[in-house]
Amino acid sequence: MTTPSSQTRWFYKVGDTKHGPVTDELLQKRFATGELSAGTRVWRPGMESWLPARGVPELFPDGMPFQALLGPLSAADAEADQSRRGPVRRWLDARPRIRDLLAVACVVLVLQVLWSVVSWWAFYDQAAHRRRAIYGLVTLDGAPLDNATISFRPASAERFSTGCRVVSGTFGIPQQQGLTAGSYVVRIHKAIPDPSLPPPPAGERDTRPGVENIPARYNSRTELRAEVEERGTCRLRFDLQSR
After folding, report:
1. pLDDT at residue 212 in the model
2. DSSP 63
3. Rounded CA separation 42/2 (Å)
4. Which CATH class is domain 10-72?
5. Confidence of residue 176 (pLDDT cuts 50, 70, 90)
6. Class in CATH terms, 134-194+209-240
7. Alpha helices in the chain (DSSP H)
8. Residue pLDDT, tens place only, 113-167
9. What pLDDT was estimated at residue 77?
């Protein structure tokens, strides 16, 4: 069988009614829009009988359109479909230009959000690479300070704050939570059970409220400062005096 040209005249049947002749392009368009289904019977000069469209591959060299596989909506189904869309959707369907503009606006908004996320992530990632690991020693009256906390607050709000526990006189903050270069105010705290209250009986848990055991010049009225350099690991030492 020879392949028909684009001017081939086709006929098709809807029910018992014959339509045509039409060109390849027009017939294919009607299938693509769902006006005709895969079961619609078609015929052209040279064919021996009417055949369902799905059995005539020359009509669809790129495959049958999806809408043709679904089949056309009946008038009742089309009316029900419109009623389910709601007034806003029907209004937009009647104004395709406005609908297209809204679609473009939505795409632009999504791209702006993605750009903001990417920009923030890039800044955060760069900032993380600028951080420095912080390690050090803390003594009180010459002895290692234990079970305390140390915090670093930047002199400028543009930098990161951080802190950690002091155990057996040592502390360490990894690079991911470390500090960027600059000056920092340092505060060291250690709470102990209030000695002015009676201790619990032997073997019972001490539930006395905690009081600060470190002089105020190292925390609430701190005099401690630390400088973090641009490169390398930052190692610090704080020798505190209780008097």
Report:
1. 94
2. -
3. 17
4. alpha beta
5. confident
6. mainly beta
7. 24-32, 66-70, 75-93, 96-130
8. 988 887 776 655 555 557 888 999 999 999 999 999 999 998 876 667 899 999 9
9. 46
For the chain, helix (H) and strand (E) counts, in that order, are 4, 14
Domain residue ranges in the chain: 10-72, 84-127, 134-194+209-240
- 83/79 Cα distance (integer angstroms): 6
Least confident of 65-69, 115-119, 137-141, 225-229: 65-69
d(CA 216, CA 212) in angstroms, rounded, equals: 8
Structural tokens at position 155: 């002199």
Place of tokens 């939570």: 177
In residues, how long is the chain? 243
> CA-to-CA distance for 224 and 241, rounded, in angstroms?
12
- Token code pair at residue 110: 């999504």
List of residues 6+ apart from 177 with CB closer than 8 A: 131, 162
